[in-house]
Amino acid sequence: MTGVEPRFDDLIHAPTRLSLVSLLTAAEWADFKFLREQTGLSDSALSKQLTTLEDAGYIDIRKSFVGKRPRTSARLTPAGRQAFAAHVAALQQIVARSGLEVTP
Amino acid sequence: MTGVEPRFDDLIHAPTRLSLVSLLTAAEWADFKFLREQTGLSDSALSKQLTTLEDAGYIDIRKSFVGKRPRTSARLTPAGRQAFAAHVAALQQIVARSGLEVTP
DNA sequence: AAAGTACTTGCCAAGCAGGAAAGTACTGGC
DNA sequence: GCCAGTACTTTCCTGCTTGGCAAGTACTTT
């Protein structure tokens, strides 16, 4: 049992951010390049979405250096993880209502 | 096993249509008033969304009379049902990637 | 005749999203 | 030193979607 209160989150629901957040749930820190490749977003689109998620308090952004090159990484905050779980619960509720069988 | 090919469907993903379609999956024919109450949409918004879903081939719209009053009802077409199932499968794939536990 | 039911359609204004391109701040050859 | 490249960020702009509001349609009810 997860015990998360279902809560539909429009910010997370948008396709690009849904992928982004789900990628982040799996990892600890994920870096810009990885996220860009996985989502197929352009630099600018990804940058903006990350800012949006950061402003919402759903992710932390860390800027570090690997050798002498900058590296931007992101990870979910506890709030972000919680919001994602709550959103998934909300989706499950919607699906449950439909009577569709779920096989995890 | 459902055996449905996962296919993310932008048309179905939008929150209002997602609720709408999930409501329709549960029922056979659902009428306008019921859908409006369940979704909290305005007459015009609902009317437009139903047209959108009909144009996509996801629902059938039936206009009948109950006594002397008109009654508009909708139900999923097989294509709509299939698209919803495929979309849910796509969502499950996304959630599965996140490693979040699913309890149906 | 006026009001109500049951929608539908047109118009509009808001909001979001992404591409292109320029900007920033360095680093790395040549 | 200078030009190109990396790694983003920000701005500008365009397109798409949505919802509200208002008017229209076609009857029925009081």
UniProtKB/TrEMBL annotation, chains A, B:
Pfam families for the chain: HTH_34 (PF13601)
Residues covered by the Winged helix DNA-binding domain: 17-95
Alphabetized Gene3D superfamilies for the sequence: Winged helix-like DNA-binding domain superfamily/Winged helix DNA-binding domain
Signal peptide range in chain numbering: none
Listed PANTHER family: BSL7504 PROTEIN
Protein name listed in UniProt: Transcriptional regulator
